[in-house]
Amino acid sequence: MIEEKLESIGVKLPNPPTPAGSYVPVIRTGNLLFISGQIPMEDGKVIFTGKVSDNNLVTAQKSARMCAINILAQIKREIGSLDKVTRIVKLSGFVNSMPEFTQHPKVINPASDLLFEIFGEKGKHARVAVGVACLPLDSMTEIDAIVEFAE
To answer: Which of 34, 44, 111, 116 shows its CA 20 to 30 Å from the CA of 127?
Structure first.
């Protein structure tokens, strides 16, 4: 059971964040979930903010991991159980970075690593990691996902 695995590694799923704009958090079409960009939000507050640089890489990695946890919370809310996930198809990771920062993949890796750890082979996915000039609510990171599931 995925929930037991989460508990064993110390991950507690939060209530899924509500959208910060005029969109829905998840679209279900066929057996795919398109999960809107998740930021490092907890209890309605952005936890990790500001520009990413070489000086705060570890903090930015924590931000990306929190985005992945919020993705998991959205999945659970939408389909009821993480055990229904058959594949993490793709992540798109955005890093609110300083212009000279070039380690975007390293920032997003903890999100990918968490999904690999939880889902094993089903957690392997395609991915993009890019730097951007700013993100909503000054978030350090934002990650969206495409997830396949079975009923």
So the answer is: 44
